[in-house]
Amino acid sequence: MQLPSQRRRRYLAAVLSVFALVSAVLAATPAQADFGRPAEPASKIEPGVFDPDAVKDSADFWVRFSSSARTTSATAIEDWTERGQFVVDQLKATADQSQAAVRKLLDERGIGYQAHWITNAILVQDGSRALAEELAALDGVEQIRAPRTYELPEPVDAKPSSGMGTNAVEWGVANINADDVWSQFGVQGEGVVVANIDSGVDYDHPALVGQYRGNEGGSFDHNYNWFDATGSSDTPFDGAGNSHGTHTMGTMVGDDGAANQIGVAPGATWIAANGCNTCSDADLIESGEWMLEPTDLNGDNPDVSMRPHIVNNSWGSIIPSNDPFMEDILIEWADSGIFGVWSNGNSGSACETSGSPGSRTINYSVGAYDVNNNIAGFSGRGPGQDGEIKPSISAPGVNVRSSVNGGGYGSLSGTSMAAPHTAGAIALLWSAAPALVGDIEGTRALLNDTAIDVENLQCGGTADDNNVWGEGRLDALALLEAAPTGETGTLSGTVTAAGAPVDGATVTVAGPIERETTTAADGTYSLVLTAGEYDVTVSAFGYETATSTATVTADGTTTHDVPLEPATSHPVTGTVTDALSGAPVAGATVSIDGAPVEPVTTGANGTYAFAAVPAGSYELTADGGQCTTALTQALTVSGPSTLNFALPKRTDGYGYFCTTGPSDYVEGTDLVALTGDESTATVALPFDFPFYGDSYDTAYLSSNGHVNFVAPVTNYTNTALPNAAAPNATLAPFWDDLHIQAGGGVYTGAVDGGFVIEYRNISFFNVANLRIDFSVTLHEDGTVTYAYRNLDPAQARELGNSATVGIENAAGNDALQYSFNAAALSDDTAITFALPPNGFVTGTVTDANDDLPIDGATVAAVAPDGTVVRQTSTDANGDYSMQLFFGAYTVQASSGGYETGSEDVLINQDGEVNTVDYALRTGIAVVESDELSWTITEGQTRSGEVTITNAGSADLAWEASEVDRGSGRQTAPTPALMGSSKVDPNATNALGTYSKEQLADLAARDMAPTAPGDVLAEWEAAGVSVAWGVGFDGDVWVSDPDAITNHQYSVEGEPGEVFPGNWGGVWNGDMALDASSGAMCQVNVGGDNAIHCFDTGDGTEQYVISGSPWNGISQRGLAYNPVDDVFYIGGWNEGIIYTVAGQSHADPGATLAQCETEDVSIAGLAYNPTADVLWMVNSSLTTFIYQIDPSDCATISTIEFPEQGSGPGAGLEMNATGELWATSQLTNTAYLIDTGVPNASDVPWLTEDPSSGTLAPGESVTVTVTADSTGLEPNLYEATLTIATDAGRVPNHQIPVSLLVPAYQVGVNAGGAAYTDGDQDVWRADKQYTAGTWGWVGQRVEVSSTNRAIGGTDDDALFQNRRSGIFSYRFDNVPAGTYEVELGFAEFQANMLPGRRVFDVSVNGDYVLVNHDVAAEVRGLWADQHTIVVEHDGGALNVQFHDRFGYQLPIVNALRVTDRPDL
């Protein structure tokens, strides 16, 4: 089904750039508004102007005209008003002339429109498709475009503060030394007018009202001072909830005259336009037009003299872009003397993340850094347009405090906050050096030259000018110190050669200050300089450099003409070859960098020639096209010169390179069932196709011009390669938004040594009149060829200006991209992707002990210099295959716990296959243990033994460690939260499960946390659209459900690996480390709803755990219990946490237990094995972290989440010491949170001797495990003893340990003396009762004994004495509680018949044994043992033995009463 067009385009959003720390939901952005001048529009009517699904075939649209005014000469006009008026007059005259025919047609037909002159365009209102086609056919009409409406984001990191000042300048103002400028130069921006195009300004704010130009003392005049693009208010206002415009204006000029010194230039005055209240392209253009020629409130009586000197623009595209929106407006501003400042965008920290318009070459853009002079993670990086260094400069932009609506103050972060620092610094400069007012190039040069250099070559550049910092940190003091701020004069003149003017000559002066400029077309130059003596150097291509001196006098003009002498010229020739093959490269372009010489092209033999190059030093660049890397070399010309180039091939990480040449186009023969829009087809390949080291037998074809080998994917939105998001294992011959319509189709067929997939007569979506042919040929050796036919060189769309062309591996982390959104293709050409000559190493890795395969073993090919050149992992069968280029390698096989295997391999024949198998040795730990469970009173010790035997083939290292179970819980209760109904089973937050009434109630609650919650660390999860699931393995892992990827970060937030997380579901949820295998496991939300575990080294899936009933619906949270090898999984669809069996269980995935949480909105989970508690974060308007008992899901305590709002709660995981890593899906922030519950690893009452060692094969060791109850309070103490080994198969063995310390215990050897049994428990000698103690009470009581062996026990002596008669045992002063009463009986006659001795036993009057017949139960000479649990109210505890008439009297051999606080 065809989607509406507005959902099908790739969009840019022009929005306020405070979105550095803005909700990730803004990643879905609207379309770009492009009013630049594209050289080759794909069609005059832009796709998407008319919605094919709309009720009527009409729409608003822009008509753009090709004519442009010539306004550059305005820069020579000194008078401010005359200069501006000249620019406006030229623009209006050009618009009137070029738009006349269109205006007339629209007027005659009564069609509404709005004409503009600052950009040569008309906005037509509700025009029909037929009208658009008619207008497009008119001469001078360049393009018909759709209008755009942009969103205004809400910053979520806004931090309000009180109205109280800081009694000091704000940190950003001081950081750029603006306060030093105030004191040393005595200026604060006086005489300069600043403006912003933003969301508006709270004009009567105490820190702004005094600087408002419309403030006339007792009244306000808003004419020429305020432009409301919405047309709703004649009084300035800020329409943004985040006070964005008020905040940026405060940073430029704010000062309340008291303690709130928030502005850089508080002496300047301000005006404003709220073009980004709506952020529609029409409002932004109207605002830009008003800035050049302000009007009264009615839009009448324009006056260019009222235009501002500086305009701050803290907005731009969210998605990194070089889109030329507003570029023509910026040109006209500059020509009129207005300095435009731009934020550089907040899509960092990756390279090429600068946002338009800041990314454009002509715009001066600003990056952001923090109070510690560290670049902000969100600050956009370059390069920008055509490789331009971006940002231009950097300024304070993190936690910047400034004015907000309502007279208050607050802190925001973003490059939006950095730009007004720069605008304010320019105001200081122009106030102190009026000669620079309107000198845009001179001001930019001073800003660049005086910035504090900061080296960061992450994205290219140099130490003093790079794509992270630009020219460096803004320094307002250095800026003014370098400016002509004292007595000034003018140095001007003409540069000539043989009497003719020299255009573009560089004039450099050095003296009291240093300046540089270039000559105009008439050879003239002019510089305003501080009075004094100067050295003047003039250079120009083709001429000898001239040096001279000149004197500049105050308030005077010094004329200094410079004649240049021609330099001697010589021919420069050379040859361009392929560095790999040595073959000549035809069609390569060779250029002389920075010289006004037309580039030359190599011929068929690779040669080039420049006929005449003046003597001098140059850099020449040879560019052989998309498949080679351009090469720049230095050359000094002093005579005929030769410079050859050997161009290196562009390769990806795997080794693929590409070549281009004429197309031998082959058509397919078999029609594939692939038609329409957004469709896929599956094709079986006739051979196994090798690609990036894997082998594939099935191809998945998309209607959008891409083929992959993983799964059916349509994806019309092309991206740059590589990209972890689907499709992966991709062939992209022409990935664009395509449409297979009637007359077009996809065909396949066999070719010699290969298989062709041909896309024939394919159109673009919504552009049916453009048709192209292209094909993919898969060769059996893994080579791929793309061929192209019927590409119109006049149609940039057909040449790929909105397409991706290239190949990509299965992980989405390696690719060879030929082009991305560039018209780089040509008709009848072919692109071949191939590998250097290579062979294969294959084999199987097994365990030397059992000969079974080792799954997930790492096999690496190591070059002689130690570099790992290729690495792979074995599959479930232990098999591997690795493709290697010619050379000698050491191939190593390794797996955790195994000795590494190593073999030398030589690859020197193309296609050869070497088989190398490995049998890796490892130890095997056989662990046998006594039952480590004791009941002893305080002050005693007990010991048991654990025997470890190495039954393997390699040495076995082992270590005993302990984990305390069941201590450390907190005990505070938590209020109950509301239940939910079930809505979207796959949503990323639970808010949809609440009713409006429930949400309102939740939002109104004031819930206090009951546990620690200090944030110990926080950082932005760079590179994700939405931060959700969390895992921890020493590094922090964060899932991105939008891109379906998993991202690795250091604990400081430095980005690492990025792996696909697409397990076949809707998105990838919470994570937990399976300590038994080392794999990171993750909830698959949707699809199979299972737990998928992957290798954190390469992202490959290792195993899947699934089971019923928990996989019947989407879950969210995941935690792992390493002691019991179980997972805890749950989500808000049910509000249930399931305990699920892990890998070591007989039935992995089986549900072992389940319980319901008090708060059902379960998001992330984590487990603390020391305290035996679960942590859970909810998804709600009131977000908390709950401490939960995993046995019944009862809430123990709560911790307040660091953020509140629309469901920030997402993933959760514990680190090694008990703190929690959590993410906010609203701000993409990762938090480390103190829980107050440590994850201890030492059990104070438990010791092992020895505690570690190494066993040779066949050796054993006996470990004595001792429990010591000294100092312990009565309680049950539990621990887990782990024998951790380096065995390959089963490295860890857990042994449960328990110690019961009762408050009361008395054991009696009835009828006998004191006795210590085999467990070292003491049984006291029998005695008669005395008050206050214990003993027997009765009549007809006697004692008997035997020396015969008693079966059924190892403690015969305990059963060889007994008491008989009518009696009881009384125990005085027994505390209240639960007690275990143990009774032991034995008949001394081997042939004792049943029915001869029958009796009853009661405890505290309650019968516990009735009609008890020892002989009937166990026969004679055999121990009959019974344990009874009773509740005791305190005081005397009586055990009564009741005789029965006609039977022998009752007996008892052993009796013990033990307090059991654990029962």
UniProtKB/TrEMBL annotation:
Which residues are the signal sequence here?
Answer: 1-27
Name-wise, this protein is alpha-amylase
Give the source's domain of life in one word: Bacteria
Q: Where is the Malectin domain?
A: 1306-1461
**EC assignment:** 3.2.1.1
Q: Does the keyword Hydrolase apply?
A: yes
| Start and end residues of each Peptidase S8/S53 domain | 189-455
